[in-house]
Design goal:
Elements (H helix, E strand, L loop, with lengths): L2 H8 L21 H19 L5
Length: about 55
């Protein structure tokens, strides 16, 4: 039995846990609408830049 077989049986310590968001990346629930509005504004700005108008 090699190392690979042993690791497949036991797994790691974090195999059954979900990833967590770091505290410095979390936003307040009240600021959620503002954050979404900023993202939509960025998408609109990028979309306008990509549009090519023919004379």
């Amino acid at each position: 039995m090699g190392r690979d077989n042993h690791n497949n049986k036991t797994g790691g310590n974090n195999t059954r846990s979900l990833p967590q968001t770091p505290k410095n990346q979390k936003i307040k629930p009240g600021d959620m609408k503002e954050e979404i509005a900023k993202e939509f504004a960025e998408l609109r700005k990028d979309k306008k830049k990509k549009q090519v108008r023919w004379p």
